[in-house]
Amino acid sequence: MDSLRIEATSCSPLIDFDPAAGLLRIEGESYPENSFDFYAPVFNWLEDYLKAPAPAVVLDIGLSYLNTSSIKCMIDVLEMLDGAHQKGQTVSVRWHYDSDNDRALEMAEEFAEDVSLPFEILAH
User: Fold this and answer.
1) Angstrom distances, CA of residue 88 to CA of 41, 79, 94, 116
2) What torsion do the CA atoms of 4, 7, 12, 15 make, to the nearest 10 degrees?
3) Residue 95 burial (CB < 10 Å; 0-12/13-18/19+)?
4) pLDDT tens digits for 27-76?
């Protein structure tokens, strides 16, 4: 399976999914004009990837800002990964946030509450 890489812009995050390593990175800010269009290739790639993933999959997130529609898309990504986790696949999340941004911590905690997979929240 091919990697998925979408370069960051001023309003959309870097998407860097390496299937061999099982590392799925999303970094930056997410407020594209149409979040559902932007994330469509992410959903399609993940759906295919989760049919035969690496032995361990880590979603590594460093998002400093998400608009409302991006939050919905991130919930969808997390639900896809949580479904794989519930089927016995080894899946985890590492959510990075700026320790000076209390709202970012609250958002990460809210996401963590919605899933059963291992979810680590890391300040820096």
Assistant:
1) 25, 14, 19, 12
2) 30
3) buried
4) 999 999 999 999 999 999 999 999 999 999 999 999 989 999 999 999 99
Neighbouring-strand partners of residue 16:
5, 25
Determine the Cα–Cα distance for residues 96 and 123; give it in Å rounded to an integer: 6
Dist. CA 116–CA 46, nearest whole Å: 18
CA pair distance 7, 15, nearest whole angstrom: 7
Closest to 65 in 3D by CA, of 29, 118, 40, 97: 29
Instruction: Please give the Cα distance from 64 to 29 (Å, whole number).
Output: 6
Per the confidence metrics, is the pTM higher than 0.85?
yes
Rounded to the nearest 5°, which phi and psi values hold at 103? -65, -35
Q: Contact, 24 vs 59, CB < 8 A?
A: yes
CA–CA separation, 4 vs 16, rounded Å?
A: 6
